[in-house]
Amino acid sequence: MEDNKQLKPFIIGLAISIFFIFTFFIGALADRIFVIRPLDFIFKREQFLTAERQLKEYPQTSLGEMMQQGGYSIADVAEKASESVITVSIKKQQQVIEPGSIFDPFGFFGIQQQEIRLEEVQRDIGSGFVVEGGLIVTNKHVVADVSAEYLIIDKDDQELEVTEIYRDPSLDMAILQVKDFRAPALALGDSDQVRVGEPVIAIGTALGQFRHTVTTGVISGIGRSITAAGGGQFESLQNMLQTDAAINPGNSGGPLINNRGEVIGVNVATTAADNISFAIPINVVKAAITNFNETGQFDRPMLGVRYTMISEQAALVNEIPRGAYLLEVVPGSSADQAGLKAGDIIVEFDGNKLSEEQELAQLINQKRVGASVRLRIYKDNSFQTINITLRSQK
């Protein structure tokens, strides 16, 4: 009798084990052969399904994989990358003046009336490319006219209306959202690892006329500072990549791609000189996209100073340290509240020594609004260390 009592729990446990083992194998069989997942109907795994759906809707282009395998041509790269490159087109009402009716029907006085009418005009003005999440990156100066409508045109010449435009207040960059637009995202590289002489490919709508124009070249310089004109405004851009790949008006906003199939820069400007063009480093863009994905807007930190960098030679001649020489401190800004004055020199920003290669604006853009940073400054012929909180530009 005692043996039967001990045997009964064993039989029950064995039966339960057999049941679970059987269920496991049936579930695996259903998943592999019939693609049936019973647990998905019991437990809602929305976060996993959303991520999987996101990958299907906005997959990354196989460009990088193709280039890693080798044996590719520039034509292969251009064809694959062009799936993710778009043309930005502007549509707006424009006044058209043309000769109209004559005041004097007999021509005695020769006075004519000019007729002014509104006409809707559409033209290609720039380029852009798709990044993860289906967002489109372009330059802010390409979509600077807030009163106009904008369209994107894909590789197959399909036109879609831009539904939302988010403009970065401190960087020549904008993000476009387009309803029901699906295209593979280009992989983003690491612009901090870019070397002079590295081969690159630029794709865009050259001169606003020739869509998906492909040019090649090399990185011919890094850390360049330029003043770019666009949308009737001038903007100072720091730490730009320089390339000899031809970038014409209309190429602005297009990708600069390395030999691994990764975007390392956003084409932004060209010069009057031949073979000198510039691109925004992609690491700056990645930080902006991350911030945008988290907040739904561009919210940049501001120190509140206008400065010029002191070169090594100027520092030696004047017997002062290298750094950012403050020309102006914005009243009420973080810098003003911390006691910074025009004439002070910021030598280090949060442990990073400032130089012409590593400027103040570049380091500030890597921080978030509300971040506390440590500054080492040269003030009144002595070094001081202060802590300061970066505030929003808005």
List keywords for this structure.
single chain; 394 residues; alpha+beta; 6-stranded antiparallel barrel; 9 helices
How would you characterize the overall build of this protein?
With 394 residues, the protein is α+β, with helices and mostly antiparallel strands. It is built from nine helices and 20 strands. It has helices at residues 2-34, 38-42, 46-57, 63-69, 74-81, 282-295, 312-318, 334-337, 360-364, and strands at residues 85-102, 112-130, 136-138, 149-153, 159-167, 174-178, 199-206, 210-230, 233-243, 255-257, 263-270, 277-281, 301-302, 305-310, 323-329, 345-349, 352-353, 372-379, 382-389, 391-392. Mean pLDDT is 79; it is low at 28-58.
In short:
The chain is 24% helix and 39% strand. The chain has 394 residues and is an alpha+beta fold. The strands form 4 sheets. Strands 1-2-3-6-5-4 form a 6-stranded antiparallel barrel. It has a 6-stranded antiparallel β-barrel with strand order 7-8-9-12-11-10. Strands 14, 15, 16, 17, 18 and 19 form a 6-stranded antiparallel sheet that branches.
